[in-house]
Design brief:
Strand order of the largest sheet: 1-11-12-6-5-4-2-3
Number of helices: 14
Oligomer: single chain
Helix content: 40-55%
Shape: globular
Radius of gyration: 21 Å
Structural class: alpha/beta
Length: about 375
C-alpha cells in the first residue's frame, strides 16, 4: 500500500491533545446558545479485541462531553467484524443526521463508498485507528510503522546472538486492515537481513483461533525445535500462537511479540510466556478523534490539532494525528500501563501470578 506520511514534531501534537479547544466553549455556550449541541456517530469494528468497548468508546464519549460542555451526543454502533454491517450502520448514522462520523473500519476499502455517501450528506468523517479509504476529512491513529519497528527491535533484543540460529515465524494481521501492512513494513525494516523468516502468514480477521491454526502449521512445516521467535502483530493473536506452541510441547517458549497491552497479554508477559507488547496510550488517540470530530462538526479548522499528513490510496494528504507507542516488557509494566491507570496491580496480579509479580517489582 502506498502511504505517504509527512513528518512533523510528534511531541507538539501529543501535547495539543490535552488542550480543550476554545472553539468548543466560549460565549455561545455561556449565553445558552446551540454551540456544542452536536451529534457524533461512533462506529467501531469489532468487540473481540478488548480495547474497543473498555477504552475507546468510553474515552471518546467522555471527551465529547467535555468539549461540548455536556451538550454533545455520541451515537454508537459496533460492526462485530462485519464490513457489510458497518456500511449499513453508516446509512443509519446518515439517517440520524449526525454532524460528524468517527469510523474505525472493518475493511478499509469496503467502507469507501459509505464514506462518500456520508460526505455527500454533509457529514465530516474522521478515520479512527485504521486509515479508511474514501474522502475522509481527518485521521488519527498510532504511528503504525513505528509500532512495527518497536516490535522488531524488541525481538532482536530478545534473540541477541541467537538471531540467525533458527527460523522466526511472522504472524501479520488481516489484509483488510491497512495497519497490518504498516506494522509488517516497520518490523521488516528492522528484521530483514538479521533473521531468517521461515513462515509468514496474514491472519484472517486478526482472530486468535486463526493465528493458532497458522502457528500449528508453521510448527509442522519447520519443526518445533527450529523456531527461535514469533513476530505476532497483536496480543490476541499472541495468545493463540502461545497456545499452539504449548500444545506442540515447545519448552522453553520462544520470544513472542504483541501489541495493544491487553490484560491477558500483560499477564502472559508477567508469566514469562509472551516477551513484549506495544502499549498504545488509547486516551490520546480517543481524545484526538473526539477533538477532530467535534471541531469539524462545528465548522472549525483543525490545523492546530494535526501533526502529520497521511495519504491513502484514494485520498492525498489527509490531516492526521499520529501517536507513538511504547514497548512493554516485564521491566516496565509498572511505569506504563499501571502508571497510566490502564490496569491496576490487583487486576494484573491474580493469585496465580502474585509471586511472579513480586519478583519483578509489581506489588
Amino acid at each position: 500500500m502506498n502511504v505517504y506520511v509527512g513528518r512533523a514534531a510528534v511531541g507538539l501534537a501529543v501535547s495539543a491533545l490535552t488542550v480543550t479547544l476554545a472553539a468548543c466553549g466560549g460565549a455561545d455556550d455561556a449565553a445558552g446558545g446551540s454551540k456544542g449541541a452536536v451529534k457524533i456517530g461512533l462506529l467501531l469494528p469489532e468487540n473481540e479485541t478488548a480495547r474497543y468497548e473498555k477504552f475507546d468508546k468510553p474515552l471518546i464519549e467522555k471527551k465529547v462531553a467535555l468539549l461540548t460542555l455536556g451538550k454533545g451526543k455520541v451515537l454508537y454502533a459496533n460492526a462485530m467484524g462485519d464490513a457489510a454491517k458497518q456500511n449499513a450502520q453508516v446509512d443509519t448514522m446518515i439517517g440520524n443526521k449526525v454532524d460528524a462520523l468517527i469510523i474505525d473500519a472493518v475493511d478499509a476499502k469496503t467502507i469507501a463508498g459509505a464514506v462518500a455517501k456520508a460526505k455527500a450528506a454533509g457529514i465530516a468523517v474522521v478515520a479512527y485507528d485504521r486509515l479508511a479509504e474514501g474522502p475522509i476529512d481527518a485521521y488519527t491513529s498510532f504511528d503504525n510503522e513505528d509500532v512495527g519497528r518497536v516490535q522488531g527491535k524488541a525481538l532482536l533484543e530478545a534473540l541477541g546472538d541467537k538471531a540467525r540460529n533458527g527460523k522466526i515465524v511472522m504472524m501479520n494481521g488481516a489484509v483488510t486492515d491497512p495497519n497490518a501492512a504498516q506494522f509488517r513494513s516497520g518490523a521488516r525494516s528492522v528484521l530483514d537481513g538479521k533473521v531468517n523468516v521461515g513462515k509468514e502468514y496474514d491472519t484472517v480477521e486478526w482472530k486468535p483461533e486463526n493465528a493458532n491454526s497458522n502457528m500449528a502449521a508453521a510448527i509442522s512445516a519447520l519443526g518445533k525445535d527450529k523456531i527461535v521467535a514469533v513476530y505476532s502483530a497483536n496480543d490476541g493473536m499472541a495468545g493463540g500462537i502461545i497456545a499452539a506452541l504449548k500444545a506442540a510441547g515447545v519448552n522453553p517458549l520462544p520470544p513472542v511479540t504483541g501489541q495493544d497491552a491487553e490484560l491477558a497479554g500483560v499477564q502472559r508477559i508477567v508469566a514469562g510466556e509472551q516477551y513484549m507488547s506495544v502499549y498504545k496510550p488509547y486516551p490520546r488517540e480517543a481524545e484526538a478523534a473526539a477533538e477532530l470530530a467535534v471541531t469539524l462538526a462545528e465548522g472549525e479548522k483543525i490545523d492546530g490539532i494535526i501533526n502529520q499528513m497521511v495519504s491513502s490510496p484514494t485520498t492525498k494528504r489527509v490531516p492526521s494525528v499520529l501517536i507513538p507507542g511504547t514497548s512493554v516488557t516485564r521491566n516496565n509494566i509498572g511505569s506504563t500501563v499501571v502508571l497510566d491507570g490502564v490496569f491496576t496491580i490487583e487486576e494484573i496480579c491474580t493469585d496465580k501470578l502474585k509471586a511472579t509479580c513480586e519478583e519483578i517489582g509489581l506489588k
